[in-house]
TrEMBL record:
Keywords: Hydrolase. One of its GO terms (biological process) is putrescine biosynthetic process. It comes from Arenimonas fontis. It holds the Pfam family PAD_porph. Gene3D superfamilies: L-arginine/glycine Amidinotransferase, Chain A. The keyword Hydrolase applies. InterPro entries: Peptidyl-Arg-deiminase_porph. Transmembrane segments: none annotated. GO terms for molecular function: agmatine deiminase activity; protein-arginine deiminase activity. The keyword Protein biosynthesis does not apply. This is Agmatine deiminase family protein.
Length: 343
């Protein structure tokens, strides 16, 4: 008998969070000291609640990362390292998408093309296979899928509903119809239905509108989404249209979702370029939600919204201004591993 497959929701129990340490060989090099401080804060926040599995490029980087984390007072009993080559640190998109397969797991290794061939991705595309071979995970089934897909492009409620943006999936697979793409997603990720958003984007985002910068599922049929209340802002019409689409979505049993609109932060510019600051790019861990913070008056309101969407969890702000220089935030640089997967 074939074991049932299920794609767990992010708020289900986790064994660890996977991330990759920035170094001089990555695009972080020009601002490495600043972004490293953010990674220290991020690992410190994660390890308050659960282990962190940190990818490092070599033994020297392992020693360095261990040193700065220990100096910062991080609980090193909750930090494990994995030496592996990588092109960049966006583990949400190059890391494993894990399904539960009966009492075990299945690691889904989709083809990673660096967001449609925008950057080099050869080493990142091998990361899931290397992780499987490392011995750091329990024995799990493995499936390589020659279909371009990033983890940031999909959201699941853990009960068979997937949410994505048509803009992103169509850009990756322009020759496939909506029905064809939905079938691939449903079949490979054990989903019973796929919901599409037609609207929504952020300036400075090079992922072609990943869903994890725009709208996220929450427990008990909730959707948290990035709103824009400033009619003078360039995002206003697109995000308002997206909000209307989300309001029209229905659960599997035909009820409206509970909606949690997030406030809109002030524009953050870098040498005239607007950066993709979104509160929707939060990371859920055991007992907490780690929230991107931007030193903005809206930070407190965003934390209050997340507290309502995830009752009983601590909301922990992490300064993400250094991260959005490279067009991503907390969720983009991490990938959760379900409870029981870490050996």
């Amino acid at each position: 008998m074939t074991a049932p497959l299920r794609f767990p929701a992010e708020w289900e129990p986790q064994s660890a969070v996977l991330l990759a340490w920035p170094h001089e060989g990555t695009d972080w090099a020009p601002r490495l000291a600043r972004v490293e401080r953010t990674y220290v804060a991020l690992v410190s926040a994660i390890t308050r609640f659960q282990p962190a599995l940190v990818c490092v490029a070599d033994a020297a980087l392992r020693k360095h990362a261990r040193g700065v984390l220990a100096t910062a007072g991080v609980d090193m009993q909750r930090v494990r390292f994995f030496e592996v080559e990588y092109d960049d640190t966006w583990l949400r998109d190059s890391g494993p998408i894990t399904l539960r397969e009966g009492a075990g797991f299945r690691l889904m290794d989709f083809r990673f093309t660096a967001w449609g061939g925008k950057f080099q991705a050869g080493r990142d595309d091998r990361l899931v296979a290397r992780l499987r071979e490392s011995g750091l995970l329990v024995a799990a089934a493995y499936r390589r899928v020659e279909f371009a897909l990033e983890g940031g492009a999909i959201e699941t409620d853990g009960a068979g509903t997937l949410l994505s943006t048509w803009r992103c999936l169509h850009e990756r697979h322009p020759d496939q119809s909506r029905n064809e793409l939905a079938q691939v997603l449903a079949d490979s990720l054990a989903q019973s239905r796929v919901l599409w958003l037609e609207h929504g984007y952020l300036e400075g985002d090079d992922t072609d509108a990943h869903i994890d910068t725009l709208a996220r599922f929450a427990p008990d049929d909730g959707i948290v989404f990035q709103a824009c209340g400033d009619p003078a802002d360039s995002h206003y019409h697109e995000l308002t249209a997206m909000a209307g689409e989300i309001a029209a979505l229905r659960t599997a049993d035909s009820r409206p979702y509970r909606l949690f609109p997030l406030p809109w932060p002030r524009p953050i510019l870098d040498e005239g370029r607007r950066l993709a600051a979104s509160y929707a790019n939060f990371l859920i861990v055991n007992g907490a939600v780690l929230m991107p913070a931007y030193d903005d008056p809206a930070d407190a309101e965003a934390a209050a919204v997340l507290a309502r969407a995830f009752p009983g969890r601590e909301i922990v702000p992490v300064d993400c201004r250094p991260l959005i220089w490279q067009n991503g935030s907390l969720h983009c640089v991490t990938m959760q591993l379900p409870e029981g997967l870490l050996a």
